[in-house]
Design a protein that fits this description.
By secondary structure, the chain is of the alpha+beta class. The chain is about 30% helix and about 25% strand. Helix 9 crosses helix 10 (about 235-250).
Length: about 290
């Protein structure tokens, strides 16, 4: 796709350090796999984030994983310590290996498709997005937002104008947790119509926190939490978890609305998501 309105491609550094001003039509560029896939009539200048040399992956002393926004999907999947969920979500991409070698974690997050697999991954692992907004005076305003709250609807995010994702931080406890994964689509290689991840954190006695994250079936990530596996068993187990998801989707906001597009009817997505919820909970409780 030729972006006829774009008049400049420049490094992002000068805008972030305040030596160059922002301008209407500025667009942050990372991998560009979505940006160049369809018309962008408002874009005038592309600010290349890949010129900043951010380290793709690093692990803190406490075991937390830091994933730069410019980290490609391929780099993430090749991380030797990656939990199984990383590969499962990467395989949910409606893209071949060539695209995964260019597509970035940050780009997939901010594109904010209901079926975005990096949204599914980092929401399920309680990833926290580190957000930057240039002040124009040589600094940036920093804030944090859980990935599950960053995406607010189909192609909608909580990003302020000019704000960007710097990195995502995943706590060590989530990386060490047990996970269960279920995905459904209308065709074997089609876009996800429902993707449910169950996560059971390491705990003692009655077990750690149990978290169910629903994406693709809803317009924005939906999460339900139980303080322990034993508390969910007492509440009714897998059937109770599915009922809780069903009651949470009440249409009051995007994350509580079944998604509707050519990749799946809302009623079918609902049926698949509820069955998958019961399945992932059953697997984690086994």
């Amino acid at each position: 796709m030729d972006l006829h309105g774009v008049t400049a491609l420049e490094p992002a550094g000068p805008v972030l350090d305040g030596t160059a001003p922002t301008a209407p039509g500025d667009v942050w560029l990372a991998g560009g796999t979505w940006l160049f896939s369809e018309p962008q009539p408002a874009a005038r200048r592309l600010l290349d984030l890949t010129t900043l040399g951010w380290v793709p992956l690093s692990v803190d002393d406490d075991g937390a994983l830091r994933v730069a926004a410019t980290c490609t999907v391929e780099q993430l999947t090749r991380w030797q310590a990656a939990p199984p969920l990383v590969g499962q979500c990467a395989d949910a991409f409606l893209a071949g290996w060539k695209v995964q070698g260019v597509a970035t974690v940050g780009g997939n997050l901010v594109t904010a498709l209901p079926a975005a697999p990096m949204v599914s991954l980092f929401a399920a692992l309680d990833g926290v997005a580190q957000l930057w907004a240039p002040t124009g005076a040589g600094g940036v305003v920093r804030r944090q937002l859980p990935v599950a709250e960053l995406v607010t609807g189909d192609h909608a995010t909580a990003l302020a104008p000019g704000e960007l994702v710097r990195e995502v931080v995943v706590p060590a406890s989530s990386l060490a947790a047990r996970t269960a994964f279920r995905r459904a689509s209308l065709t074997p290689l089609g876009r996800s119509a429902s993707l449910v991840v169950g996560r059971l954190d390491v705990g003692t006695g009655g077990g750690g926190e149990l978290v169910v994250t629903v994406t693709a079936a809803t317009r924005a990530p939906l999460q339900l939490r139980w303080p322990s596996s034993s508390s969910l068993v007492e509440a009714g187990g897998p059937d109770a978890a599915a009922a809780a998801v069903d009651s949470a989707v009440d249409g009051s906001e995007p994350r509580r609305t079944w998604h509707d597009d050519v990749h799946g009817h809302p009623a079918w997505r609902r049926a698949m998501a509820l069955a998958q919820t019961a399945d992932v909970v059953r697997e984690l409780l086994a």
